[in-house]
From TrEMBL:
Source species of the chain: Cherax quadricarinatus (Australian red claw crayfish)
Name the UniProt record assigns to this protein: Palmitoyltransferase
Membrane topology according to the record: Multi-pass membrane protein
Family: Belongs to the DHHC palmitoyltransferase family.
Keyword Electron transport: no
UniProt-annotated location(s): Membrane
Upper classification of the organism: Eukaryota, Metazoa, Ecdysozoa, Arthropoda, Crustacea
Domain called Palmitoyltransferase DHHC: residue spans: 96-131
Transmembrane segments: 24-47, 53-77
PANTHER family linked: PALMITOYLTRANSFERASE ZDHHC16
Reaction equations catalysed: L-cysteinyl-[protein] + hexadecanoyl-CoA = S-hexadecanoyl-L-cysteinyl-[protein] + CoA
Gene Ontology, cellular component aspect: membrane
Amino acid sequence: IWQKELEMGKSKTVLPQNSTDRMLFTFMIVGIPFAAVWLGCVVLPHYHDTINTTVVLHITAAAFIFYNIFHNILLVIRTDASGRTSYLPSVLKPGWRYCAICQVNYPPRSYHCHICDECILKRDHHCKFTGKAKK
């Protein structure tokens, strides 16, 4: 299953390799659940004595945001934005460009990153909080 994910553009490692990246990643993984527990155990009981519609809506919204944060962090960590593992077309499609450095056709909203020395999809792929900084 890992080989199939690697072929589909998913990286195998989840934990960052650099110590600074690990520290920031740990801060995110520990800090966000701590904030959720603090909200549920300290803030909500202080302002609301009973469970009513407002409390339920507040907890539902917090759970939705909590899920989205972790799901998006996991997707950023596991998705490879480069074209090296993708099956790029050999014929130039409309809107696509050719990179003379990588010698591949790359899609719109992509560019050649001179730090990675490869073509990547346009997004912040050097994020320290998700452990995707330059290795």
